[in-house]
Structures are given as C-alpha cells and as structure tokens.
Write a structure and sequence with these properties.
Elements lengths: L9 H8 L1 H19 L1 H11 L2 E3 L2 E4 L2 H44 L2 H7 L1 H42 L1 H48 L1 H5 L2 H51 L8 H43 L19 E10 L10 E10 L3 E6 L5 H8 L7 E6 L2 E2 L5 H5 L2 E4 L18 H10 L8 E2 L2 E2 L6 H15 L3 E5 L7 H17 L3 E5 L11 E6 L2 E7 L17
Parallel strand pairs: 5-12, 5-13, 8-11, 11-12
Antiparallel strand pairs: 1-2, 3-4, 3-6, 6-7, 9-10, 13-14
Helix pairs in contact: 1-2, 2-4, 2-6, 3-4, 4-6, 6-7, 6-10, 7-9, 7-10, 9-10
Length: about 575
C-alpha cells in the first residue's frame, strides 16, 4: 500500500497513528451523543411523573437523581472523548511535522529550490497546524452527530411521518450547505496560494531590511506590492469563503425552524397523538438545532484543513532523492582524481530561468591541487560547484572518482568526502562530531588564528553563540569545515566579507595548507590578485567552460605569510 495515502484524510491520519485509542474515543463520543439525545425524553417524563419512562417501561424511579447522574455521565464521556482525540491529534500532528521534515530532507536540493522556501515554511507551520485544529474538532462533531441521530430516533418513536418529513428537510439542508462549500474550497485554495506569496514577501522584509532602510520609496513600494497586495488578496478570498460558509450554515440551520413552523402551524389539528407528542417534537427540533449548527460550523474547519492536507499530500508525493546509505558499496575509497565527463545540467525551477543550462563540461580535478572558478553572474559557477559537491545530479554525463562512477549506490558515500561553504551557507550552533573525537587543541588553535577567542566558545560540541558579524560567522563556518576533515573543500566567495588581513590569510595560508594535506580545493572567486595561489583557473561564461589556465599562465607575484601553525 502506498504510505502517502495516509495523508489524504484526517480520519486516516488519526487512525494510522493510534487505531485502538481512536476507536475508544469515538465510542465514548457516540455514548456521549446518545446520552445527550435522551435528555429531552428524560425531561418530558420528569414533567409527567418524576420518573424516566420509555414505552411504559420505568427506567428510573427517581427522575431528579437520575437526571443529574445522566448529566454527569455526559460530562465524563464527552470530556474523555475530547481529551483522547486531542492527544491523538497532537501526537499525530507532531508525527506529521516530523514526516514532512524527513520528506524535505530526503528531497534533492534542486527539488527544494524549485518548491521554494516560503511554500515549505507555510506547509510545515501553517498547514500542519490547521490540520491539527481540524483533527481536534472531530470528537465534538461525533458527539453532535450522534446527538442528532439519537434525537431523530426519538422523533421516529413519537411519529414516523414527522420523522420522515424532518429527514427530508435535513437532507435538503445538507445539500444546500454542500454546494456553496465546494465553491468556498476554491476560495480557500486561492487564499492559501496568496499566503505563499505573502510568506516570500515577509522573508524579503526581514532579509532585505538593510537595503530598504536606505530607500524610503523602495521600502514603501516593497511593502505595498509584496506584503499589502498578497495580504489583501488572501484576506479577501478567505473572507468570501467564510461568508459563503456562514450563509450556507445559517440557512441550513434555519430549516429546523421552518420544520418547527410546519409541525406547529401546518399539520392538521389533532394530527399528533397527544399534546405531549407535539411538545416532544418541538422540544426535539429545538434541541437538534444546536448540534446541527455545530456540525456545519466544524465543516468549515474541516474544509480549510482539507486544502492544507492536499498541500501536505502533494509534498509527500514528491519523489525523494534515491541513494544507498550502505557504507560497503565502494570497494576502494582511496582516489586521486575527480572527473566530470560531458556533464550537463538543466534547471526546472520556476524561480530560475529554465532556458539556462550548463552545457557539456569535461574537467579533471586532482587531489592536492587548488582550482579557482571565475565568471560573471549567471555564468554557471554555482551550478558547476553544486555538481562537484553532488548536490545536483547531472542531467547528462557522468562524474567519477578515478574509475568509480558516482551512482545512486555510492552517492551518499561520495558526498561524505565533501565539505562546502556556499554563499548562502547556514551556520549550525552545534558541531556534529562525537564529543570524544573533537581535537580541542586544534579547535583552540583555529579560534585564535581566526580571532574568534572571546567571541564564542565550544562547550562540549555546542558553540556558546553564533550571533557574530558576517566575517566572524564565515570564519566560524570555516573552522567547522576544517574540523570535519573532508577530502574535498568547496568555497563560494568565502573571502567576500573578510577584511584584507583574513582575505590574504585565506588565499595564501588556508588554501595552501589544505593543498599540502592532499585535499582537493575548489574556490569560486573574483579576487584576481590571488589567482597565482591556484594551480588552475577555470573561467565560466554562459553555462560553459570558456578557458582553463594553469599557474604557468598566471604571472602574479605570490606574497609571503606565516603558516597557520605560526599565526
């Protein structure tokens, strides 16, 4: 069975988490609803002779005491049902969030980029919470539904023709409610799409704060176009959907009063067997109005949750990246050369020009050498680097270590060889290395070398803070990368935010020392004064390798600096 089917309905989501508890909670809810439905006959019997009598059978002699026992039983069963389902819903929601997180992690980087940060954040935060809220409402709906069924049973006991008339009226009411609900779902879907655009606007508002502070008009225009417009559209769509739901719900609720009017004013005099029967019918219809209204209002929550559930389901249906996690898939882990053979890559992201593609690239990268990748914006530098780091899989062509072709069987093992610091890197507050394997002396040496001493400390395997300046954060990211001791290091404009001292230190000491350790180093850079630090400089242009120069072709003086150990 396809596991993704579990996300197509709320009931399936809850049932798959804890079927026994859910069944127990539903039974309690049904019992509570059944007891609710007996309140009217209980009251009517009490008005007659202070006992509960059904079809001439006396169930309770002391109606007063029995009534309060009844109410207590309703309270206990209803509360127990709500608590049980609430716990199941919260736990299932937590599992759903974890499942979504695992699915996101299992997707390829290019797929995540295609979906977009804002949509993913909305799914994890907004959609899952709406699903949880709807799931928690299910026990209340069950109680209301069973109450309605119980009252209908009581009406059937009083008069079958009245019962049939009321059933027809309820069916008409439900149909009148469902037709506009389908239209409202489309409005909720469009509102949800507008919220994705709003989330992207909020992201720009936060990360673009520095730029907008320097231009009042730019900030004003951004706020109007990227925040106000999607917010107004989303709110408008949601308000229209709510209005339709409320109109349909209230109209359906009023049908009960139309039925009451028909019973009281339109039925022939003496049609009901007794005044008590007429009184019982009216009481039951008045009593049934509340549960019906409750069901209809909850259907609005369920309809909104269904839109969110479909979004989560779409994410779960995306194909995960396929690779083996076995560490015994490659016989020889030693290698000397990384080769790209006629490698091509085609973007499919909505946020990237789909016409752009990396044209066939054939390159050899040797261990113990430094390679610089240069070129203008959109030349393919980052795309090439992500192919070398195995974040992207080639659309065509192959990548191999010596004679070992990188496939899904050894992809994960090959990725373990790579350390990267991209321009949009994320600095984790934790060093994901077993505490006992951390070389404290080396960490302290790097802290002093990168002038991070006193700025942050490594306690156990957690940094005391990562709230540092941009340059300090990059140096801390470099420290983490060096501690992970990879075979391949890729740096995307690492020195861009560094002052001249650390920029020079990076090119003339950090990279050469990695080279001396036998590492393969690839750096994307525009610092042409340091081209002599590389063994080869690869120039990209329009998605193709335009040229590849070796050190002999670069006539720049190489400045002298002390080694990292001496610094």
């Amino acid at each position: 069975m396809n596991k993704n089917r579990k996300l197509t309905s709320l009931s399936r989501l809850l049932f798959n988490y804890s079927p026994k508890q859910l069944v127990f909670a539903v039974v309690l809810g049904m019992l509570s609803g059944a007891l609710y439905s007996l309140i009217i006959p209980f009251i009517l019997s009490g008005l007659e002779d202070d006992s509960l009598t059904v079809s001439d059978y006396v169930l309770l002699e002391d109606g007063g005491a029995g009534f309060f026992i009844f109410v207590t039983a309703i309270l206990l069963t209803k509360v127990a049902s709500v608590i049980f389902v609430n716990n199941i819903a919260k736990s299932a929601s937590a599992d759903l969030k974890l499942s979504v997180a695992k699915r996101i992690q299992a997707l390829g980087v290019d797929t995540v980029e295609r979906i977009g940060f804002s949509k993913i954040l909305n799914i994890v935060v907004d959609d899952v919470n709406k699903i949880t809220n709807a799931a928690v409402a299910i026990p209340m709906m069950i109680v209301s539904l069973v109450t309605v069924l119980g009252m209908l049973t009581y009406l059937a006991y009083l008069d079958l023709q009245v019962f049939a008339f009321i059933c027809v009226a309820i069916v008409i009411g439900v149909l009148l409610f469902q037709l506009p609900v389908l239209f409202a779902k489309g409005l909720y879907t469009r509102s949800r799409n507008d919220k994705d655009a709003l989330q992207e606007g909020i992201r720009g508002l936060i990360f673009g704060a520095y730029e907008m502070k320097l231009s009042h008009e730019k900030g004003k225009q951004f706020l109007a176009e990227e925040i106000a417009v999607p917010l107004a559209s989303s709110t408008s769509q949601e308000k229209r959907g709510d209005a339709i739901i409320h109109l349909a719900g209230n109209a359906s609720e009023m049908i009960c009063f139309f039925v009451i009017g028909a019973v009281v004013f339109l039925l022939p005099t003496g049609y009901l067997s007794s005044g008590t029967s007429a009184f019982g019918v009216v009481m039951a219809l008045l009593y049934i109005t509340g549960p019906i209204a409750s069901i209809l209002s909850m259907m609005q929550t369920l309809k909104i949750a269904q839109v969110s559930l479909e979004r989560v389901h779409q994410l779960q249906m995306l194909e995960p990246e396929v690779y083996s996690t076995s560490k015994n898939t490659v016989e020889n882990t030693e290698w000397t050369k990384l080769s790209l053979s006629e490698v091509q890559y085609q973007y499919t992201s909505d946020e990237v020009d789909e016409a752009f593609a990396l044209k066939p690239v054939s390159l050899n990268f040797e261990k113990g050498k430094i390679y610089f990748i240069v070129g203008g914006n959109g030349s393919g530098k980052s795309t090439l680097s992500k192919l070398i780091s195995f974040h992207y899989r080639p659309t065509k062509g192959s990548v191999q270590f010596d004679d070992t072709v990188v496939t899904e069987n050894n992809l994960m093992q090959m990725r373990e060889k790579v350390g990267v610091i991209f321009s949009n890197y994320h600095l984790f507050k934790k060093l994901y290395i077993p505490t006992e394997k951390i070389d404290r002396e080396k960490v302290q040496q790097y802290m002093e070398t990168f002038k991070l001493t006193g700025k942050t400390e490594l306690v156990g395997n957690i940094f005391t803070t990562t709230k540092l300046s941009d340059g300090q954060r990059r140096r801390l990211a470099l420290l983490v990368a060096l501690m992970e001791d990879k075979d391949i290091y890729i740096f995307d404009e690492w020195a861009a935010d560094q002052d001249p001292e650390f920029k020079d230190f990076f090119y003339t000491q950090v990279l050469p020392e990695l080279k001396a350790q036998g590492k393969l180093v690839v750096a994307i850079t525009h610092d042409d004064r340091y081209f002599n630090c590389a063994d080869s400089v690869i120039k990209m242009e329009s998605g193709a390798v335009k040229s590849m120069m070796n050190t002999a072709a670069i006539s720049l003086a190489k400045p002298a600096m002390p080694s990292m150990a001496q610094a």
